[in-house]
């Protein structure tokens, strides 16, 4: 049977916005995070503390964190690739830091400019400092179901990185389908293999909807015991590797699925749908959530 409750982590303010070509005003980012926390999310990925040369859109992480109204019961997470990012995240008051690696060497080089082994060496002091500061540590594994440069990614490569992130003491590890190419059986196989080295209840599914497989992959993940999923309001976030493709799976669609299965999330779907419409208007984009559009048209 399905679990009685699932944690949905909202990643729109980070993964959804990071590739927007036009600078999104800091006030809009702050309002987005606040609307989402008011909708009941227990965990929001609010921003990144990365090099502004690599991702200019996330350069205002400190201001975003300073501007939001902290809701008790919501954890605010941010990406921190190195000690410089960690120090900024700590000063900004994030609750959870995310160290982000990849299961493919080529993607690791292009995304964080180092090999997988070098990335783990770089993450080690970050994880240790975070633990000493009492922050949660999440590890994210890109290209766990396929790589835009390398193509197929062996399950063993994913398990290897899971193991390394576990050694660093990660509280939670994300299996990320960066380019949305995975299909259901593959998803089951990757989670089953990962769960042999890290507890299933602390693994999460981060799906992009590039090929329209995200909801099917979430259902497949639920089948094998995954209880944490990432999603982005209004399906924000294009895929830089597939022009015009949709971004992260839309939060509204995921909530509609989960609630329909009788799974509690603690999140107000109607409030998320209104937020999805609002942010789509702010960005001048069509609302990428099918459930969101349908709910608002009722
Ligand atoms: P590098 O160029 O090798 O780093 O980049 P560096 O240490 O040589 O530093 C270069 C410059 O950046 C220096 O500035 C540093 O100070 C500065 P300069 O001296 O030239 O003026 N710098 C920083 N500034 C602010 N904050 C920092 C920071 N670090 C260095 N933390 C680095 C290496 C990792 C920094 C770079 O490649 C980077 O920032 N990459 C981030 C890429 C990124 O954010 N990608 C998107 C997020 S991952 C993702 O979306 C996948 C995910 O959603 C899961 C999935 O779907 O797969 C999570
Ligand atoms: Mg992503």
Q: Which small molecules are bound?
A: 3-hydroxy-3-methylglutaryl-coenzyme A, magnesium ion
| Helix/strand/pairing category | alpha/beta
The percent range for helix content is: 40-55%
Rounded average pLDDT:
97
Shape: globular
User: What is the string of helix and strand elements?
Assistant: EHHEHEHEHHEHEHEHEHHH
- Give the termini distance in whole angstroms: 31 Å
Poorly predicted spans: none
Number of strands: 8
Annotation field: number of helices: 12
User: What composes the largest sheet?
Assistant: 8 strands, parallel
Radius of gyration: 17 Å
Strand content: 5-15%
Describe what this molecule looks like in 3D:
By secondary structure, the protein is of the alpha/beta class. Helix content is 43%, strand content 15%. It contains twelve helices and eight strands. It has helices at 12-16, 26-38, 61-67, 83-92, 105-112, 116-132, 155-167, 184-194, 214-223, 251-260, 269-283, 290-297; strands at residues 7-10, 43-48, 75-79, 96-102, 136-142, 172-177, 203-207, 228-231. An eight-stranded parallel beta sheet has the order 1-8-7-6-5-4-3-2. Helix 3 links the parallel strand 2 (43-48) and strand 3 (75-79). Helix 2 crosses helix 3 and helix 11 crosses helix 12. The longest helix is centred in the middle third of the chain and has 17 residues, at 116-132. The structure holds 3-hydroxy-3-methylglutaryl-coenzyme A and magnesium ion. The site of magnesium ion has 6 residues, from loops.
Please outline the helices and strands.
Blueprint: E1 7-10, H1 12-16, H2 26-38, E2 43-48, H3 61-67, E3 75-79, H4 83-92, E4 96-102, H5 105-112, H6 116-132, E5 136-142, H7 155-167, E6 172-177, H8 184-194, E7 203-207, H9 214-223, E8 228-231, H10 251-260, H11 269-283, H12 290-297
Helix pairs in contact: 2-3, 2-11, 3-4, 7-8, 8-9, 10-11, 11-12
Bound molecules: 3-hydroxy-3-methylglutaryl-coenzyme A (HMG) and magnesium ion.
């Amino acid at each position: 049977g399905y679990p009685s409750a699932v944690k949905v982590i909202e990643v729109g303010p980070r993964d959804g916005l990071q590739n927007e070509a036009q600078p999104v005003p800091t006030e809009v980012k702050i309002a987005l995070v606040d609307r989402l926390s008011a909708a009941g999310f227990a965990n929001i990925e609010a921003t990144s503390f990365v090099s502004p040369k690599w991702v200019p859109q996330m350069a205002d992480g400190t201001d975003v964190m300073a501007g939001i109204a902290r809701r008790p019961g919501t954890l605010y997470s941010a990406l921190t690739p190195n000690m410089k990012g960690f120090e900024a995240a700590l000063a900004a008051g994030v609750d959870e830091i995310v160290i982000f690696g990849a299961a493919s060497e080529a993607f690791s080089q292009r995304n964080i400019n180092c090999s997988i082994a070098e990335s783990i060496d770089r993450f080690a002091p970050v994880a240790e400092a975070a633990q000493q500061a009492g922050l949660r540590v999440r590890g994210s594994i890109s290209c766990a179901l396929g790589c835009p440069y390398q193509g197929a990614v062996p399950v063993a490569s994913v398990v290897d990185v899971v193991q390394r992130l576990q050694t660093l003491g990660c509280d939670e590890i994300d299996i990320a389908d960066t380019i949305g190419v995975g299909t259901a059986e593959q998803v089951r196989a990757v989670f089953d293999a990962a769960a042999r080295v890290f507890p299933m209840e602390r693994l999460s599914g981060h799906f992009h909807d590039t090929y329209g497989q995200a909801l099917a992959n979430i259902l497949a993940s639920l089948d094998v015991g995954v209880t944490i999923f990432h999603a982005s309001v209004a399906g924000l976030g294009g895929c830089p590797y597939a022009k015009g493709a949709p971004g992260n799976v839309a939060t509204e669609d995921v909530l509609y699925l989960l609630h329909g299965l009788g799974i509690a999330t603690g999140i107000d779907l109607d409030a998320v749908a209104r937020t999805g419409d609002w942010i789509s208007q702010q960005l001048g984009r069509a609302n990428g959530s099918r459930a969101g559009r349908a709910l608002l048209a009722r």
